[in-house]
């Protein structure tokens, strides 16, 4: 308990930055993921190919490597400077977007064929079929897998600690600098993550799943 | 597959699709072109930055690093599957003294970030006097604890999705509970869950790269080391490109195996169905 109270400043800023990373990355990943999912079911073959290539390429690359590219490689390209925090947000968003798009795409497949057939029968074009008929229904059945994706994102934010972002994963380095006991400190970090995941996100996931369940 | 979302294109739609294709191609070429141009502008393609990869010693070290990644992956994969099976059995046990601890074990280790688990192993345990924790052990144990818990859920879901008759038939011919689990339920569960299991193996492969952050000598760490070699023009971006190619290659091979086994098994299921139809006919 002492480690937590004595270093409350570390824990507070650390988890605050983890929260910032999580919320902003989740926001961009959701937008980009939806666009990519739309591309992957679109009528134009080139769009499908581009979406598929992006998802397959990024999903088979370790997150650590992606973050290393944006944090360490990007500054060598002579482009406008970005902070390590921004680099981590870009990397996490690009990485998570592929998982979001896969979750949404499988959700699109659960919407029964009759729905889109009916939409086409009354003359809606592809964009309207997708945005007015299919996606609103798909989003509901997508909530549980989407939440799993975001839980994974919350845990993945710790990787940014390796690339000069001060967040929950870097608390250890600062604790060892201050000569504090490491094991209790790390166990506190782990416990806070358990509380965040099992205490907040998972019950929320169950609640929304129940609330938005589609009767089929 | 999702062609239900749009009609078979008529003349107008075909023209529109051509425009969409051209537009997409332009955007993609634009993005990739911009990245390549920036690489070129900042001299990432100069011979000086790639020279280092032609040295036999560097190539040898790269192979060693790949070996380190693969050995961590191999040990962690086997360990995770074993732990997963054990925990799945535990969660399906009759006694609640086994069931409840196994439930909390899987829940807890899935909720803690893998990197934190590895840090607890590598930095936390030695600080209270546990000796002999190498980065390899920390990486493997972290991977096994996390992925074992995930796989346990996969196996459990697979076993629970089997028809009740399988278990009952097993008991009816006089098998014990352990025998029913091992010889009847688990093989079928593994077969139906194989795509998910191999997808999890790809995750293990990617997560070995976390070892970089706790000083395990794997591919990314070696690439980072090469990137700091000033006399060869600090070829960090070339080294990262090589690393990305290696990882994508390794993961695609794994996914390829997954697709192959899946297609093989679905063809076998089809055969079974055909036989059934033949009998019925």
TrEMBL record, chain A:
Chain segments annotated as coiled-coil in the UniProt record: none
GO molecular function (one): transmembrane transporter activity
GO cellular component: a single term: ATP-binding cassette (ABC) transporter complex
Principal localisation: membrane
TM stretches of this protein: 20-41, 53-74, 80-100, 185-204
Gene3D superfamilies listed in its UniProt record: MetI-like (1.10.3720.10)
Subcellular location: Cell membrane
CDD domains named among the record's database cross-references: TM_PBP2
Domain named ABC transmembrane type-1: residues: 15-202
Annotated membrane topology: Multi-pass membrane protein
Family: Belongs to the binding-protein-dependent transport system permease family. HisMQ subfamily.
Name of the protein: Amino acid ABC transporter permease
Automatic annotation (TrEMBL), chain B:
One GO-annotated biological process of the protein: amino acid transport
Membrane-topology descriptor: Multi-pass membrane protein
Any single Pfam family the record assigns to this protein: BPD_transp_1
Transmembrane annotation, as ranges: 18-40, 65-90, 102-124, 136-155, 192-216, 236-258
Entry keyword Cell membrane: yes
Domain of life where this protein originates: Bacteria
GO cellular component, one term: ATP-binding cassette (ABC) transporter complex
The entry's keywords: Cell membrane, Membrane, Transmembrane, Transmembrane helix, Transport
An example molecular function term from Gene Ontology annotations: transmembrane transporter activity
Matches recorded under NCBIfam families: HEQRo_perm_3TM
Descriptive protein name: Amino acid ABC transporter permease
